[in-house]
Amino acid sequence: MVITRPLARLLAAEFVGTFALVFAGCGAIMVDAKTGALGHVGVAISFGLVIMVMIYAVGHISGAHFNPAGTFAFALSRHFPWPRALGYWTAQLLGALAAAAILRGSLGNIAHVGATLPSGSQGQSFLWELVMTFFLMFVIMAVATDTRAVGEAAAIAIGATVGLDAMFGGPISGASMNPARSIGPAIVSGDLHALWLYILAPLAGAAVGALIYQLIRDEPTVPAEVVRPADATREAPREKE
Q: Which of 23, 61, 118, 204 could pair with 125 as two cysteines, CB 3.0-4.6 Å apart?
């Protein structure tokens, strides 16, 4: 894949968005572990808000995926080109790693740098991660690919879903729903315990969420070059590579 200037802008937006997600979200976990100032609800809100604001910031540039599972599901449902997915995955993982590295460098290895870890069995967390990612991707498909949805509210809907999942699922599995969000802190903290489930469960959940929405929608799917949650009412322009 040749990285042209237009593609470089998309990848830079994905890097910044994923960096913000990990820095603010995992940073909130670490700050709460250090000070007790945020509480579980505050951490969940932090994750939801950072997703919302970054969709508004760069959704019109890259589509604001910030999530390898989301990119995978978009490609699987023919809303995103497979050749570009590798570049998005790379940018997302690098953004997560960079944010986790800065968090550890500034706060130390507190709370495993915000890594997601099961509170019970790995099987339990796998199931919960799959279901929560299903919810998230189902909402994303509704607001980002269906022309009947209100595009301007997409960021609010997606951010609220992330916050909701984190609110009720965080104490069980950590509510990752995002391989990059889990891989970055796991590698930087050196705690790779159960990392496999935070990669496979979101991929499976996102795929099921996208495919189920495709089944229940009653209008034809229009393949798009880049899915833009912040501007869901228009098909994204095609950029030459």
A: 118
Residues making up the chain, counted from first to last: 241
Return the pLDDT at 217. 82
Count of CB atoms situated within 10 Å of the CB of 226: 23
Rounded Cα gap, residues 202 and 185, in angstroms = 16
pTM for this entry: 0.88
Contact 189, 104 (CB under 8 A): yes
Tell me how far apart the alpha carbons of residues 27 and 192 are, in angstroms, rounded to a whole number: 19
- Tokens 């879903």 locate to 161
Spatial neighbors of 59 by CB under 8 A, at least 6 apart, are: 154, 155, 228, 229, 230, 231
Q: How confident is the model over 70-79, as a mean pLDDT? A: 95
Given a contact cutoff of 8 angstroms between Cβ atoms, the answer to whether 101 and 170 are in contact is no
- Residues 6 or more apart whose Cβ sits within 8 Å of residue 27: 46, 99, 103, 107, 114
